[in-house]
Amino acid sequence: MKRRNFIALVGTSLAAAPLWANSMTSKLPPQKAIDSVFPELPYAYDALEPTIDAKTMEIHYTKHHKAYHTNFLAAINDTPAASMELKDLFAGISKFPAPVRNNGGGYYNHMLFWENLSPAKTNPSSALSAAIDKSFGTMDKFKEEFANAAKKQFGSGWAWLVAGKDGQVFVCSTPNQDNPLMDIVEKKGTPLLCLDVWEHAYYLHYQNRRAEYVDNFWNVVNWETVSKRYENR
Ligand code: MN3
User: Fold this and answer.
1) Which residues contact 34 (CB under 8 A, 6 or more apart)?
2) Which of 23, 89, 98, 111 has the lowest tally of Cβ within 10 angstroms?
3) CB neighbours (10 Å) of residue 102?
4) Mind listing the domains of the chain with CATH numbers?
5) pLDDT tens for residues 78-119?
6) How many angstroms separate the CA atoms of 129 and 131, rounded?
7) Are 9 and 38 in contact (CB under 8 A)?
8) Are 199 and 156 spatial neighbours (Cβ–Cβ below 8 Å)?
9) Ligand 1: distance of its center to the CA of 189 in Å?
C-alpha cells in the first residue's frame, strides 16, 4: 500500500469527506509494509447505509480497527517484526506471540475489508468471473458457499474468497483475526474478498441476525477491488 494513499486522521470528520474514490488508485493488496500511519477509511461512515449503518461503521473503524493498529504497533515495537513486510510476518506468524498474531491480523484484515466494500455498483472482471465459474460453477453457487462459511463460522471470525498458488479460487473461514496468509491456516493463499462476522461488525443494526447481514453484504461488495486483487496476486 503506497504511503501517500494514507493520510493521518487528525480529528477530521470523515462523514463530511467522500473519500472512497481515492481508494480506487490504491495498489492492492496492501501487504507490502507495516505502516505506522492509521489508514484512511475510503468512504464516509454513512456511505454503505442501509447495509452497514453509520454508527456501526464509525465505532468499527475508530475504535475496533484503531485499537488493532495501535496494539499491533506496540506488540512489534523494538522487535524484528517491526521491519518485516506483513506477508512475511504472516507467513511465519506461528513463531510470534499471540498479540502480534491477533492485532496484526486485526489491523490487516480490516484494511482489506474496508477496501472491498463500496457504495458504487461494481462488477467482477472477466478473469475473476472465469475463476469463480471454474471453482464454483456459477456466481450464485459461489455466493452461497461464501455466505455459508460466514454464517457457520462459530463465534468471531471472517469469511474469505482466496486465490491459491495455481490461481484457483476457494472459500474458507478463519477464527478471531486469523487470515489466509498465515502459516497456521489449513489452506493458504491470497485474500481476495473478506467479510467480518464479529458481532461488532453488525450487532447494532442486525442484533443476532448474522444471516441477514451476510445476505445484504452482496449489495456493497467492491468487485473492482476484488478483481484487482485477483489480477495482482
Ligand atoms: Mn471488525
Assistant:
1) 72, 73, 76, 81, 82, 84, 85, 86, 89
2) 98
3) 18
4) 3-116 (1.10.287.990), 126-231 (3.55.40.20)
5) 998 998 999 999 999 999 999 999 999 999 999 999 999 999
6) 5
7) yes
8) yes
9) 21
Amino acid at 228: K
pLDDT at residue 17, as a whole number? 34
| Reported confidence tier of residue 130, pLDDT bands at 50, 70, 90 | very high
Give the end-to-end CA distance of the chain in Å, rounded to a whole number.
14
Ligand 1 centre from 200 Cα, in Å? 6
DSSP state of 1: -
What average pLDDT does this structure show over 196-220?
97
Q: How far is it, in rounded angstroms, from Cα 33 to Cα 89?
A: 10
* Span from the CA of 109 to the centroid of ligand 1 (angstroms): 8
